[in-house]
Specification:
The chain is of the alpha+beta class. The chain contains 7 helices and 15 strands. It has a single domain, classed as Aminohydrolase, N-terminal nucleophile (Ntn) domain (Glutamine Phosphoribosylpyrophosphate, subunit 1, domain 1). The strands form 3 sheets. Strands 4-3-5-2-12-11-13 form a 7-stranded antiparallel beta sheet.
Amino acid sequence: MEIESVCRLYAMRASEPTKVECSLVLAQNALMQQSQGDAEGLVHGHGWGVADYRETVPMIEKQTWAAYHGEHFRKTAARVYAHTVVAHVRQATVGGTALENTHPFQNGRWVFAHNGTVPNFDRVRDLMIDHIDPLLRNDIKGITDSEHVFYYLLTRIMRHPDQPLHEVVGRALRQIIDWSHSVDPNEEVGLNIVLTDGDRLVGSRYNRTLWHLVKTDVAVCGVCGRTHVQHDTGADYRAVEIASEPISGENWQSFANGVVYAIDKDLHFRIDPLPARAGAVAA
């Protein structure tokens, strides 16, 4: 069955535990507001998920109703205080609304979310599935293109542990794009992703809007009137936020289309073009 998703995602990586309630709930264009109506007027009401890390363990809250319904999303956002956060609101045009189809997806320490679609996925899946490690293949619980992309990426990472993470992910995404174009070169692939193990975070912008905001100090928030860091961090605080749309009136910058980005353990932030060729496909 073909799955097409038009969603909104958010990610944050910071050098110190940081609150994200304003970005998720309180800001003018917070993720909860985007779930009710984004910049294009689309509603993302088919489920939501928020992931953060306690030490090295990802904690994920997911529900199948809209983020803007009730207090559950609001309360979840209010409790999050972490180095690494991934959040997602889903709009599924084809496919069931179910927890197993709701982002973020998790395997061990890895957490993944996706904004976009792999068109003709029933046919692309036939090309992809044999390249997903059999042990990981058994972990696939839902029917979305997104979850299959996640496990294909994990396979490539597992088989190339000594290579830079952003390079492995970039080549894997190019392979998915090539598979999709081999099925129908006229269909547009949407591959905005975020993937993290809590220490490292990588992602891409490909045919969907994506923005980033780099913070290099702890400032009083113009939305809530407080700082988002609850202790004295000194001069070394740094944070990077990623979002499908600018969330606040701060200096958000748009990613160029066709890039892979990476935030390493030391909060170094880099952006590179997606590779022109996929390279060797994992057997």
